[in-house]
Amino acid sequence: MSAQSTTATPFDIKQYMIEKAAMVNQALDSAIPAKAFPQSNLLHEAMHYSLMAGGKRIRPILCLAACKLAGGLEPWALPVALATEMIHTMSLMHDDLPFMDNDDLRRGKLTCHKAFDEPTALLAGDALLSLAFKTASNLSSYPVDVSPDRIARIVGELARCSGTEGVAEGQLVDIKSTGLSEPVPLDKLEYIHLHKTSALLEAAVVTGAIIGGGSDEQIDRLRGYARSIGLLFQVVDDILDLTKSSEELGKTAGKDLASDKTTYPKLIGLDKSREFAEELLGQAKEQLNGFDSESAAPLVYLANYIAYRQI
Ligand code: GRG
To answer: Does the C-beta of 168 come closer than 6 Å to ligand 1?
Structure first.
């Protein structure tokens, strides 16, 4: 795939992401009081450890960008942007636990249950989910331009994307589909990714747009954009898994083909997976037609970033 943009204005996505991630990191860092409960500070320490262990901050950045595109000011969406990263991080903490993906490393550091222990990681993840809802629903952290009605809507979106209609459902179906003798069919693979990965990206974009005061039509378009980039994220992940591990092994069949997880390259082949990724990128950008192209530039380039990333 060649990295092309649909806008004429040059836009430095790397610099943009560095700046926004720095703002998000600072706000996340102060969202967890270091010494709030001296008797049980362990919970805060573990939450803080995982939240600040790195990460690209794609979800909060998407949220801020969507808020601005929908007519708001970026800082309006900061509370809900932080909430999306908290939900994302807690899902990673739980995913890393021995009874799920059983990973020792995350974001280049020890996973939470390795740095602390399993009960601490489980409960710190739970507490981070609660903190996400507390942060997003705190009326006093939004300006008066953002009505309580919009805040109620974004809390609903966050709840929807986390539970049976989103991440938790996607994760369970994924777990139950792994290690079977037959590969997962394409429609089920898409179902898993739309729930496990797209749902939270969708919530990030849609909540940003709601806070920014977007119209129903704009919100629908941005929802479509987010669903496409969510699936794109996963298809590219599958391609990278295969090509990176092939490079490392110096042969064509890498980790992906050997693992018991169904991936796009496994089901439809590498070339068709690349074509599908290109198609999804096109669909995502199409949803942005009709918005002012300069204002839409961050979302266009974020889609490009997801499509052409190397990690
Ligand atoms: C949310 C209620 C609730 C439960 C969580 C454990 C679980 C249920 C879900 C796991 C979901 C999971 C691991 C999804 C993968 C998401 C994904 C694409 C991760 C990688 O995202 P990046 O690249 O990571 O944005 P960084 O580290 O940059 O943040």
So the answer is: yes
**Range of the structural domain that residue 201 is part of:** 13-308
Per the domain annotation, does 236 fall within a domain? yes
What pLDDT is stored for residue 33 in this prediction? 73
Mean pLDDT of the chain: 92
Gap from CA of 9 to ligand 1 centroid (Å):
33
Q: Most distant CA pair in the chain: distance in Å?
A: 59
92 token code pair: 């990673």
* Within a domain: 157: yes
- Number of domains composing the chain: 1
Q: Which two tokens stand for residue 191?
A: 């179902």
- Residue 99 maps to which CATH number? 1.10.600.10
**Residue 205 vs residues 59, 80, 120, 270: alpha-carbon distances, Å:** 8, 10, 31, 29
- The encoded tokens of residue 23 equal 């703002």
* Residue 85 alpha carbon, nearest atom of ligand 1: 29
Chain segment 173-188, per-residue pLDDT in tens: 999 999 898 889 999 9
Place of tokens 């198609």: 279
Ligand 1 centroid distance, CA of 82 (Å): 15
In a domain, 195, yes or no: yes
289 pLDDT band, cuts 50/70/90, is: very high
Residue 8 lies in a domain: no
